[in-house]
Amino acid sequence: MESLTLMPKYEVYKNSGEDWIGDIPSGWELVPIRSIFKFRNEKNSPVKTEEILSLSIANGVTKYSDKGRGGNKRKDDISAYKIAHPKDIVLNSMNVIVGAVGMSKYHGAISPVYYALYTESEDVLVEYYEKIFLNEGFQRGLLKFGKGILIKLSGTGKLNTIRMKVSTDDLKSLYFPKPPIAEQNLIFSFLDKKTAQIDEAISIKEQQINLLKERNQIIIHKAVTQGLNSNVLMKDTGIDWIGKIPEHWDISLAKHILKKLNRPRKKNGDTVICSNHGCSKLLGEVNQGLVSLTQHDYQGVDEGDLLVHGMDAWHGAIAISEHTGDCTSVVHVCDSHFNKVYIAYFLKMLAIMNVYKVISNGVRGNTSDFRSWSKFGEIQIILPPMDEQAAIVELLSKQIQDTERAIEMFQNQIVALKEYKASFIHTVVTGKVKVTPEMVEQ
């Protein structure tokens, strides 16, 4: 990564008067947004386009028809929508504070809660200003205008989506730096190249993480279906997703192996959640739908209990609880005379192989429903002898722990790269370094 301190600077700076901008080069202007952009209020009534555009923090402006687009759900009456054109800056008035903004590449209809900003000035490069709109410093500067529910700071320092509307009048009153158009072009070209390099480095590390996760899945599958001794005789189970297993292993139903517990709620207990990330404890807050908003139907959980989420087992929400507390009744809280850690690994293997989705019709589009204990109890589980269960757990725990450490290392590197990228963009677009033609050509 390039050191920002070694890059050339402008000779003279002046105070912008805006905290998030800081000092800007003396040759730059500081102007209100209203002098750069106009707010497009073109209505889709009568209907001019059927192409719906969506906006998300992760993907910016995309076509609603694109897979994995994110953004708001389409309304039935598209005549209530507004129109956006290519090179419009589209922002979600309710979520711009957390990054729901981007430049459109398309002509289409946008939600009434979105703003579309456009320019007719020849001395304005929209791509340069998109970088400013995406700047976290600018977004956090909008907090003073936000009118809505509340916001939440995540553990990574990122603001999570909690709706706070920013009005057009508030936006129009904000000030942006305005470099000469030649410098806008240099800055954009330089950032386009450099951020692509950073994104490539992030992508490589994400691929490495995916390979490590696949390695974990292969290790788990082989261990819980074939054991640790490759020289034993095998037998066919007749079960498609299992195939052959060691001849001396048994197969039984979950209802014969696991005992469903119905513990009373703990007094003043913490909330325990079971997700595909494992089992964690929540202190006094509701977290992204993993726990229900009302707790009258909660049950007690002890450390060491096996937890299986009735709705999210397909996603790997199976864990041995590391906490004592309460959890939603959607989770099956279980005990067993067999090795619960081994059983958890086996049940996770079924998730890896999409078995839950194959044998269950979900109530949501991309899930499976095993809230019924009698239904879950019919799942077939492979049972090695107890000593082999223990040996499998010991091997998997060590190998997976090693892999998880490597994954955590790459994740930390990705966080560092994203932080560097954000700092790099902020430094360049606010003129803290001077971009030269030579820097663009390098």
TrEMBL record:
GO biological process: DNA restriction-modification system
Name of the protein: Putative type I site-specific restriction-modification system S subunit
Membrane-traversing stretches: none
Enzyme Commission number: 3.1.21.3
PANTHER family, A to Z: TYPE I RESTRICTION ENZYME ECOKI SPECIFICITY SUBUNIT, TYPE-1 RESTRICTION ENZYME ECOKI SPECIFICITY PROTEIN
SUPFAM superfamilies per UniProt: DNA methylase specificity domain
Keyword entries, A-Z: Coiled coil, DNA-binding, Hydrolase, Restriction system
Signal peptide: none
Coiled coil: 393-420
Lineage: Bacteria, Pseudomonadati, Pseudomonadota, Gammaproteobacteria, Vibrionales
MF annotations from Gene Ontology: DNA binding; type I site-specific deoxyribonuclease activity
InterPro entries from the UniProt entry: Restrct_endonuc_typeI_TRD_sf, Type-I_RE_S_subunit
Species of provenance: Vibrio fluvialis
